[in-house]
Automatic annotation (TrEMBL):
Pfam families: ArsC. InterPro entries: Arsenate_reductase, Arsenate_reductase-like, Thioredoxin-like_sf. This is Arsenate reductase. The keyword Iron-sulfur does not apply. Transmembrane segments: none annotated. Belongs to the ArsC family. PANTHER family: ARSENATE REDUCTASE.
């Protein structure tokens, strides 16, 4: 079973490049338009575990909503983790993209061709 999934925003050029590269390599994958099919808090936690990252590591802090929420001033420690995860689920625009979940259950943020190739080789 090819479990590769890519979370994209179709308006994002890096997401479109990643998809083009996956297609060029003939990779089997599922697309998730995460702004429409919004990940739950549990799904975000699962992806963070696979990425080996914390929620603030995949947060787009330049987004307008990030500024409204004052994310820059939020604590970045274990006690604040749930607050960040909740914000990502409530405001999926904040999620860094594209995120590829590789066949081996790991994941990575695929903002370069190298990262996409890395996902394909896992």
């Amino acid at each position: 079973m090819g479990a590769m999934e890519i979370w994209i925003n179709p308006a994002c050029s890096k997401c479109r490049s990643a998809i083009s590269l996956l297609d060029a390599e003939g990779a089997g994958y599922t697309v998730r338009r995460y702004l429409e099919d919004v990940p739950s808090e549990d799904e975000i936690r699962d992806v963070l575990d696979r990425l080996g990252l914390e929620p603030w590591d995949i947060t787009r802090t330049q987004e307008a909503v990030a500024k409204e929420l004052g994310l820059k001033d939020w604590a970045r420690d274990a006690s604040a983790r749930d607050r960040w995860v909740k914000a990502l689920s409530e405001h999926p625009k904040l999620i860094q993209r594209p995120i590829i979940t590789a066949d081996d259950g790991t994941a990575l943020v695929a903002r370069t061709d190298e990262a996409v190739r890395d996902a394909l080789s896992r």
